[in-house]
Every structure is written in C-alpha cells, then in structure tokens.
Amino acid sequence: MSRLILDSSNPPEPGHVLWRSPSNIALIKYWGKYGVQLPKNPSLSLTLAASCTDTQLNYELRKGPDDGQIDLDFFFHEEENEAFRAKVLEFLTSLLPEMPFLKQLKLTVHTGNSFPHSAGIASSASGMSALALCLCSLEDRFFGTLKDPEAFDQRASVLARLGSGSACRSIFPHAALWGATPLVPGSSDEFAVPMGDHIHETFKDFHDDILIVSQEEKSVSSRAGHALMEGNPYAEPRYAQARTRLSSLLDAMRTGELPEFGKIVEDEALTLHALMMCSNPSYTLMRPDSLAIIEKVRQYRADTGHQVYFTLDAGPNVHLLYPGELVVDVRKFIDDHLAEHCEGGFVQQDWVGEGPEEI
Ligand code: PMV
C-alpha cells in the first residue's frame, strides 16, 4: 500500500477531477450491518437519474511538513459547510492507510446536489459515490492502478461503501446488488455488482417519483437504525426473509413480472418500517401522510389495474415506482390526489438511469 505515495521531487501539477453520481432506491433493503460497514443481508436497488450529486475535487501538492492530517477545504453549493466537511474529513482520514497520498495534497471539494437541499431526499448515496469516484480517478491519475474499468468500478464501490453503505450500489447503471449471495456469482459484501444485464427491459424504463411528505431531518439516523437491529428480536428471521425475497425478486425482474415485483417491493418497504417500530427503543419514521399515500396507491391500482407500486427509504417520503408507459396517467394521479400529502406539494421526479459520469 505504501506504493501510493507521491514523489515530491516530481510533484503532479495542480488539477481537478469531477464526477456526477446518482442516488439509488433499494428494492430489497439493507438494514443491519456488521464489521466495517458490511451488510447482514444482500440488497438490490435501481439506480436513479435525476437525483444526483456533482463533486469536484481540486488538488495540489501541499506545502510545509507532513503533519499526518488531511488538508481539506469544503464547499457545499459554494458555501463552506462545517458539518459536511467534518463528515468527509472523517471518511478521508479513515482511507489514509490505503491512500496515504491524500495527506500529501491540499484538497478542495466543491459539491452540490441536483435536488433542493433539505428536501428530505437522502444525499449520502449520491454524495459518497461521487466522492469515491473522484478518489479513484485521482489514484488512477497519479499511480495508474485502475486502468481496467471493472477494477475501477469495484474499487469505487468499496470506497463508497465505506462512506455510506448504500452508496456502493450507485456506481452501476440501471440496477445493482450488494452483498454475497449464491444467487449472483461474483457478488460480495465488500462491493456492489452491476445487475443491468439480469433485468427485463421494462425496468430500465422505470420511473421513481419521490413524494416529499416531510423535509425535516430524520429523528433517528440510519446509522442509529442499523445499530438498533443488534437487539431486535426479529433481526435473524428478517435477514433470512431478505434472502428469500431476493431470490423471488430476481426471478420477477428477469421475466418482467410486475405484480410479483410490486408485491415484494411493497412488502420490503413495510418490513423496513416494521423493524423500526419494533426496535428497542421503538420509533416511527412514517407519517400519517405516508400512510394516506400508500392507501391511495393501493386503491388506484385496484381501480385502474395500473402497475404502480410504492417503496420507502428510512424516512417518511414515498417513492412511486412504475413503468414509463404510465407516466402521463400516474403524474395526473399524483397531481390530483397525492401532491396534497406532500410538503409544499413537492415531488421529485426521477427514473432509472445510466449511472455516474465523469464530467
Ligand atoms: O446507507 P445507509 O447506512 O444510509 O443505509 C440506508 C438503508 C436504507 O436506505 C434504508 C435501505 C437501503 O438499502 O438503501
């Protein structure tokens, strides 16, 4: 590892790297971890397109003596942000054993999201994946270690995972799986693998409209939520259930069987929230409006036969998943019946995307 040290007699010119990386929505949820951010069960997600983070990492050789610290300036939407800086600094510092060159540099991060800040949309997946991709570009530029695109993506996925577990799935287009399972050769707890070639075309044209029920910060963070799985009496059966559901979901996604897909996805969302409610201490992140939306979606499906399904992350906002051909009808349904449950009527329109891009 010590080979990743810059030769200060032949320093790199100052420069920058810039990546745009999307968020993702889990269909089979990651909830419960072990070791260094490793998942208790495999998870599967769709990669989004519109909800993304742009991150530019500027670098130049640092002047002065090596004090073992990382020299970092951090700007979020062009403003200094101490809370985000501290988080990124902690992450970069944790990478020093394998990326010692980071402390030889003066680093400046300029980052921003495509969605309104504090819209209640989690930005850790897009943010941490964008940063991980920047770090991989930097490593490859200085040391030529990641020329092979597969090796590059895998390393980016590992680094993103260390920043925020679910971020490791954002590296790949269309769909990604994280967690070792005999169902997918090459899968691993350490990184996600691309699943775009294993899903029916219909899912590559899927929409995910995110109904923003509340923009407030969550009362219990994901980090605390994962930790509470430790004492949860349903934890072990839950992990087994996730494996069984993954198997059925992979079949349904291979064949494009939407009703089976939707049933599993909705069951997963409600299981995630049930696990929160029966943690000790118990907590609830769903709001009355989340439930009202869920009921209306079920009724709409019954009335129209349209294949529209809901899922939720660790928060009150509801994601509506549906095939592209329904976009006009579903957007009208949202405007007429669901927007009234959203804070300020805000809905973030999203869809399945092609994965990150270097800009
Ligand atoms: O990546 P984290 O630690 O923020 O955990 C996210 C967990 C869920 O979003 C609730 C589910 C998932 O798999 O993304």
Describe the protein in words.
- This protein is an alpha+beta fold and 359 residues long.
- The chain folds into two domains: 184 residues, Ribosomal Protein S5, domain 2; 157 residues, Alpha-Beta Plaits (2-Layer Sandwich).
- Helix content is 35%, strand content 23%.
- It is built from eight helices and 14 strands.
- Strands 1, 4, 5, 6, 7, 8, 9 and 14 form an eight-stranded mixed beta sheet that branches. It has a four-stranded antiparallel beta sheet with strand order 11-12-10-13.
- A hairpin with a 3-residue loop joins β2 and β3.
- α2 packs across α3.
- The longest helix is centred in the last third of the chain and has 21 residues.
Broad shape: globular
Write down the CATH class of the largest domain.
Alpha Beta
Number of strands: 14
State the CATH architecture of the largest domain. Answer: 2-Layer Sandwich
Q: Order of SSEs, N→C?
A: EEEEEEHEHHEEEHHHHEEHEE
Structural domain tally? 2
Ligand kinds:
(3R)-3-hydroxy-3-methyl-5-(phosphonooxy)pentanoic acid
Largest sheet: 8 strands, mixed
Helical residue percent band: 25-40%
Which fold name is given in CATH as the topology of the largest domain? Answer: Ribosomal Protein S5, domain 2
